[in-house]
Amino acid sequence: MDAIWKIGCNKADHYPTLNRPIDADVAIIGGGITGLTTAERLADTGLRVVVIEALTVGNGCTGGSTGNLYSIMATGLAPLRKKWGDDMVRKVVTSRAQAIDYIEEAVERFGIDCQFHRRPLYRIATTQDKKTIKTLDAEHEAMVVAGLKVDTIENSPLPFSMEQGLKIEGQAQFNPLSYVHGLAKAISQRGVEIYEHSPVRNIDYDQGLIETDTAHVSAKHIVHATHTPKGISLLQTMLLPSREYGVSAKINSDAYPNGIFFVHDPFHSIRSYQHENEQYVMVIGEQHKTGEGDSNNAHFNNLRDYMGSHFEVTDYCHQWSNQQYSPADSLPYIGKLHGQDRAYLATGFSGDGLVWGTLAGHIIGDLIIGRENPWHEPFDARRFTPAKSAMKWVEENASVSKSFFKDYLGTEKLKEIEEIGLGQGKVVTAEGEKLAIHRDETGKLSVLSAVCPHMKCLVHWNGAEASWDCPCHGSRFDLEGEVIEGPSFHPLAKRDQPS
Question: What are the strands of the beta sheet with 433-439, ordered from one edge?
């Protein structure tokens, strides 16, 4: 199923595939909130700006997001405060609040129908577990340090019990897919060129050349607005790729939760969404490292069980998942690539990408035109923070090494092709090669190389989403081998059926 946002999304404009060579001042790879905000920042500067999208506008991570906009961080301000101190906590909250204000202003300026509303945010503990209460107390203190007005609440705004809760006003929610569709339409009318179904296959920074399957772009500035940089980047050793899941439902009640709810029980995010006369409640959670989750529908089923235990569900409507990249030192990386003065990236957004992506668009746009931006330095992609990054760096790269050697040494040999059942996928060794084999419900086989083109790790089967996922750096591929997301430029290679 698709994410819930398509039911409330007005028909999007369609943009052509890039099928001829063009010259541009700025080429932006990625048509999500980061790329389109960057393009909007540059739209009236006299520069020729081109946006190149592998799929369609907004249908990557932006279209799979929660639609929640908040100045804090989902993982909490307290861990950030412990690592970076009070001043950084204030900078994070102030910069993110400004980004939300920009979204609200853009909605009004361009007349975007995306159900933007200011809403309160709640952090709620449903248990008296000492660790959970201590976490919430530390979060309260960090919010106050950040300058936020925080209310403690005693009565649960959700239809289930609560032990302790915090509330901050002035946050927001919207339909993210409708928003980026509206933003794309607005900037295309101001001269920005948008191309869809144009996956990038190679970048030559020395020549300023971006290659797609059918054409190329010569550009003075190249922007990776792709959630994680394409190709091989030093920053990929500092990022943890993970998946998170969402389900939505209709409930037998008029008491739909009004706001953003972060529930510590363990962590779930809850919100409602209304389109015309229909209301839905959604729950997000079940986070795990990309390529290492349960290979069937367990994560979706767990969320349905959670929702069913807290709400009187009448109908489950949607299920989806999304990718996150968490930074080693807790802050996003926004700015210039290492070793490149005319190439830019924005990554490490964790689960907070709608607001970070908006802020990143402003920072990168300002870098390109030489305008001062107060938020560039705190989130500079070239920063060096070994003390703050060391533990996560060691954990992530140990995990990558473990996956690499375990997979290459432990892949089972294929005895006979019939051992792969209908709807199943499996990575096997056959005729001396690592293969990713899938059999669809009609019995048709798809045979691909299991070697991720990015850095040669082996992909894993993701049965819940019928994809091949790389546990090393987060590249994901569909049943035909085409790149869905992640750093890989190239698809999984097609192979003949083993004899």
Answer: 425-430, 433-439, 445-449
Task: Mark 351-367 as b/e (b = at least 16 C-beta within 10 Å).
Answer: bbbbbbbbbbbbbbbbb
> What SS3 state is found at 319?
strand
Which letter does DSSP use for residue 494 in this model?
B
Find the Cα–Cα–Cα–Cα dihedral 196, 197, 202, 206, rounded to 10°. -10
State which H helix or E strand residue 239 sits in. Answer: strand 239-251
Integer Cα distance of 488 and 215 in angstroms? 19
Q: List phi, psi (to 5°) of 225.
A: -105, 55
Q: Compute φ and ψ for 489, nearest 5 degrees.
A: -80, -35
Burial tier of 86 (Cβ tally within 10 Å: 0-12, 13-18, 19+): exposed
pLDDT, tens digit (0-9, with 9 covering 90-100), for 20-63: 999 999 999 999 999 999 999 999 999 999 999 999 999 999 99
Q: Which residue has the tokens 């001062």?
A: 372
**pLDDT number for residue 392:** 58
Helix (H, G, I), strand (E, B) or coil at 30: coil
Going by their DSSP bridges, the two strands 460-462 and 209-212 should be labelled as unpaired
Closest CA to 287 of 316, 339, 326, 235: 326
Q: Give me the phi and psi of 411, to 5 degrees please.
A: -65, 130
What are 246-265's pLDDT values in tens digits? 999 999 988 899 999 999 98
pTM: 0.94
Going through 39-82 in order, the beta strands assigned E by DSSP cover 49-52, 68-69
Which tokens go with 7?
A: 């039911």
